[in-house]
Amino acid sequence: MTEISSTPQWKALEADAAGLAQVPMRALFDSDPDRFARYSIEAAGLFLDYAKNKLTDQVVDHLLALAAAADVEERRAAMFAGEAINVTEGRAVLHVALRAAATDAYSTAGEDASALVQAELKKMKGFCDRVHQGAFKGYSGKALDTVVNIGIGGSDLGPQMAAAALQPFWIDGRRTFFISNVDGQHLAAALDAVDPERTLFVIASKTFTTQETMTNAKSARAWFFENGGGEDDIAKHFVALSTNAEAVAAFGIDRENMFQFWDWVGGRYSLWSAIGLSIALQVGFDNFTKLLAGAQRMDQHFKTTPMAQNMPVMLALVGVWNRNFIGISAHAILPYDQHLARLPAYLQQADMESNGKRVSADGSVVAHATGPVLFGEPGTNGQHAFYQLLHQGADIVSADFIAPAISQRELGDHHEKLLSNFLAQTEALMRGKTEAEVRDELRGEGKSDAEIDALSPHKIFPGDRPTNSILMERLEPETLGSLIALYEHKIFVEGVIWGINSFDQWGVELGKVLARNILPEIAGAGEEKPSATAHDASTNGLINRINAIRRKG
Ligand code: F6P
């Protein structure tokens, strides 16, 4: 595999970045009134403005040439064709099949993926209907109005984020708790708040072996037995979402209560599969179908639109430009909609578990930077927390600003205030405030020369902080589906350019194994334990200290 940073296309971009180093973005705007029209794309219910990046037409051409050099179109075709592009696990990557039209025919390794998907969707719909109509009853004959979704990572973040985002679409009287952490306080708080006679436990785990999820599921089952349920009632209160039928059966959930998905669905790409059952139960199956339809629109756009007008491709190319040529290592996700509060956490897994890699698909260490650190909070909250660093920090952070033009809950002028902040922030980050502007302003406030000299360095904003703005009419199931699919494909394109496999996650393994080894050394609070010696001095010391405290306490 050619190291992408040795290609002439990469070198051309390095030269572009050097040439633009002293050109402020505000100058690019001043000399180019059509910038907004040229550097924006509308697709699948979303509008992307990427004009507030340090781009010129030459840079865009060179980025497109880089995409061609990295075979983005060929890799895209391979993904849609169900080829095993997840090379280290020998798996296809076909989450697009989960939201395809019923008439589409996706297959992989001779398996008709579309037929499997349609059958499972039918089963999910049937189940949702029975729960919603009160026909699926608990052990005491009552309808189930509460879901406790037990899962972690992709089996938690996606459904949790989507359910929160679609709060205006919740079915009256229904509630869902998302329990992920092995910290027992997480599950205990939910169990304190639910009625065992009316609660459905949805055990969501692709592998059905994940320590956190199995620990929580076993504790939930024990609580259920202590609170009126019996072995024979498991079928009325527990369902499983998994690819592992054997482990589900071993847990005591029968096949009828298992909703399946397949190894060609990555955990962080699974909310469209059976893993979305908790979303469908909370917002209704029709709205879940609309979520899938929105993603499908973005898939079609991504699959068929030329690179230069392709929203995920351009968002990815801008990401590569900022990461590799401007040298930005952190990226903020800033939704200006409170219902998208969990989007940054969701995208952290989607992006960082996919592209947080330093080895290329063929095993060689890459010679360039890969995925940035992602973080974020809803606006305007973040403005009163970490935006100081975005505006004046020593490091440059890029950001995506996301907003619906119309709120689902228009309350007085709240949304206009929210939108004015959404707009003002990207303008401020791009323009900044020069020393001359600061000095003029202070002079206008009647400050003395000495005061101006002392204060002005603190009041300068360097500007040139790149942002994308993603606008939609309203945040609803279709637009949410498009938005998530946009990011999925963006991550894919970046991974292709960086030459990495975006679909494995070996980096989570080492800690899991070491935790399993350490568990016996701290298990059994109160027992006298031999001094730990098997680890480094720091880990041994901490184990011994924890054991001493737990023995006393
Ligand atoms: O953190 C690693 C990981 O494998 C994620 O990729 C996945 O989403 C999560 O654990 C949960 O896995 P499972 O659904 O198998 O319980």
Major sheet size, sense and barrel closure: 6 strands, mixed
Ions, cofactors, ligands: which are bound? Answer: 6-O-phosphono-beta-D-fructofuranose
Strand content: 5-15%
* Count of β-strands: 13
Cα distance spanning the termini: 57 Å
How many helices in DSSP terms?
23
Structural class: alpha/beta
What form results from the Cα inertia axes? globular
> What is the radius of gyration computed over CA atoms, rounded to a whole number of angstroms?
26 Å
Low-pLDDT residue spans: none
Mean pLDDT: 97
Query: Going across the major beta sheet, what is the strand order?
Result: 1-2-13-12-10-11
The residue fraction in helices comes out at 40-55%
Features:
553 residues; alpha/beta; 6-stranded mixed β-sheet; 5-stranded parallel β-sheet; 23 helices; 48% helix; 10% strand; binds 6-O-phosphono-beta-D-fructofuranose
Fold and architecture overview:
The protein is α/β, with parallel strands linked by helices and 553 residues long. Helix content is 48%, strand content 10%. It is built from 23 helices and 13 strands. The protein has helices at residues 8-20, 25-30, 35-38, 57-69, 72-80, 95-98, 113-132, 157-165, 184-193, 211-226, 234-237, 245-251, 277-283, 285-304, 311-325, 343-355, 387-392, 414-431, 435-444, 449-459, 477-498, 509-522, 537-552; strands at residues 40-43, 46-49, 107-108, 111-112, 146-150, 175-179, 199-204, 238-242, 258-260, 330-335, 373-375, 398-404, 467-472. The strands form three sheets. A six-stranded mixed β-sheet has the order 1-2-13-12-10-11, sandwiched between helices. A five-stranded parallel β-sheet has the order 6-5-7-8-9, with helices on both faces. Strands 3-4 form a two-stranded antiparallel ribbon. β3 (107-108) and β4 form a beta hairpin. α8 (157-165) runs parallel beside α13 (277-283) and α14 (285-304) packs parallel to α21. The radius of gyration is 26 Å and the shape is globular. The model has no long low-confidence stretch (mean pLDDT 97). 6-O-phosphono-beta-D-fructofuranose (F6P) is lined by residues 152-155, 205-207, 210, 213, 267-268, 353, 505, 508. 6-O-phosphono-beta-D-fructofuranose binds at residues 152-155, 205-207, 210, 213, 267-268, 353, 505, 508.
